[in-house]
Amino acid sequence: MIDPQLLRENPDVVRRSQAARGSSVELVDEAVAADTARRTAIGEFETLRAEQNAFGKTVAQAPKDQKQALVAQAQELAARVKAAQQAAADAETEFTRLAGALQNPVIEGVPAGGEDNFITLREVGEKASFDFEPRDHVELGELLQAIDITRGTKVSGSRFYFLKGIGARLELALMNLALDKALSEGFTPLITPTLVRPEIMAGTGFLGEHSDEIYYLPADDLYLTGTSEVALAGFHSDEILDLEGGPLRYAGWSTCYRREAGSAGKDNRGILRVHQFNKLEMFSYVLPDDAEAEHARLVAYQESMLQACELAYRVIDVAAGDLGSSAARKYDIEAWVPTQGTYRELTSTSNCTTYQARRLDIRYRTESGKTTPVATLNGTLATTRWLVAILETHQRADGSVHVPLALRPYLGGLEVLEPAK
RNA sequence: GGAGACGUCGCAUAGUUCGGCCUAGUGCACCACCCUGCUAAGGUGGAGAGGGGUUUAAACUCCUCCGUGGGUUCAAAUCCCACCGUCUCCGCCA
């Protein structure tokens, strides 16, 4: 939910943002009109209600012989109050519908346009080159007996897989490396529920245009989360936070579930795009003024993870149209995937400013004692998908795979993954 | 799965019998001030959330909020219904 005051006082800012995203600009004017209508309706209702409250006292104190006449009068007033209340509620609903459809105003400098209009901020590391024909991660996964896609499909259908042996260990090593990184940066680890109630899913903004991406369990009216961001954002919902001692930072460890409904036929091979994977997600609750600095911090943590895994990557500033409704700015880090000859997204970090917090009612107290929404940010620290880049980047001619130094302590010192005999 | 109890302004509690005197009382904690040489104790006052109006702002003022949502009524913390949550007992499973 955007700030109603911003909408009222600076509709141009919202208009520009909607335009940059390629979203409806007219919606801004509709929302402004709905805001005016809503406030008028509220005023009318409250005037009548005040009258009714006062009259109620007269009735209560009236002598018995006058009561009947007064009650008759009160009934008539009550009917008018009821109508006005309904009108106010309707106006409120309409405003919420329209304003709720407005996306988070993008931050100054975010490139306008769609998926291809991103700006590359930097490229880091040397892309792997081979004097042999490199194998893709599926082949390597088979050689190492680390990834079993055939059986994953047999058991659960397409886009499912087993991580086996060294594959399972490698994922845990990566996740634990990320967890230690998060701990050293002061994050509190949190293992989160992966089934959430509808209001939490809606509050984080995932039930909008991407609702067909989400698994839903009708028998229980619960949603399977596609990222622990959902639970992490819901963690402090309806709370007033104390940020005096600095931001609240959490690292959420969870399995993630995605239907991948719109991507049939895309990335069918391997474990790049799957229905289920694990992820360690950073989540920060900060003062609105500190959000951009926190965003830079989250990217830095992500880059240090990519570097620890000895991967070549680029950092991109995602274009407005590709942001999702809650994000005011998003940086993706994409690692070079040798057999695809391209960069693929490994992390994503969003600055949701106060947009998500306003929906979930997460506030802090200002110096004057008033409450106002906090800013929320989130970013990936590790996911199963990283195995793709790690295996392909560090492979050798004989099918063995070099283990990045930083991961070795988590694999009992193992330096090389050897093909199974 | 069955039976029952409960949900009140940070915490604890009163109020629900019998709808209007609840503009929700009290204690603790909290904040400011006063008093006592310090501390403790005591005194006075303040203090919840959301939203309108007004305003540069403050002050002021009005409406809403007693788990959530409906309903009955001139009037609901109080009566009715549904849902959510917590606890206890029984059953079942691990």
Task: Give structural notes.
The protein is an alpha+beta fold and 421 residues long. It folds into two domains: 4-101, Helix Hairpins (Orthogonal Bundle), CATH 1.10.287; 115-417, BirA Bifunctional Protein, domain 2 (2-Layer Sandwich), CATH 3.30.930. 40% of the residues lie in helices and 21% in strands. The chain has twelve helices and 18 strands. It has helices spanning 4-9, 11-21, 26-61, 64-101, 137-143, 149-156, 166-184, 198-203, 229-235, 291-308, 355-360, 386-393, and strands at residues 119-124, 147-148, 162-163, 188-191, 195-196, 216-217, 222-224, 239-241, 248-257, 276-286, 313-317, 329-337, 342-351, 362-365, 371-373, 375-383, 401-402, 416-417. It has an eight-stranded mixed β-sheet, sandwiched between helices. A three-stranded antiparallel β-sheet has the order 5-7-6. Helix 2 packs across helix 3 (26-61) and helix 5 packs across helix 12. The longest helix has 38 residues, at 64-101. The termini are far apart. It binds one RNA strand of 94 nucleotides through residues 39, 42-43, 45-47, 49-50, 52-53, 55-57, 59-61, 67, 70-78, 197, 240, 361, 369, 371. This is Serine--tRNA ligase. One of its GO terms (biological process) is seryl-tRNA aminoacylation. InterPro entries: aa-tRNA-synt_IIb, aa-tRNA-synth_II, aa-tRNA-synth_II/BPL/LPL, Ser-tRNA-ligase_type_1, Ser-tRNA-synth_1_N, SerRS_1_N_sf, SerRS_core, tRNA-bd_arm.
